Description:
The protein is mainly α.
Amino acid sequence: MDASNAIPLHEAQIHLLFEEAGLMETPAPDMRRVDEVIERTMHEKAIKDTASFVFLGFPAALTGLMAVATNSVGEPDTDYRA
């Protein structure tokens, strides 16, 4: 952005614009809506974590079980009792 083309806005002008628009007072928070947003966020996080486990964890566990079933874990010459 070219600084020479920028319109300088002073804090007093911005304050006046907000005053004219009736946006000077901050509205009181709607706690019911806040609680709904928090609850929805927790549900979405639970769904994300479950999907991550199913699609990332299950294939790794299945691969491990198949490696054990086919006896392809580790080196055949390794003595694990030592």
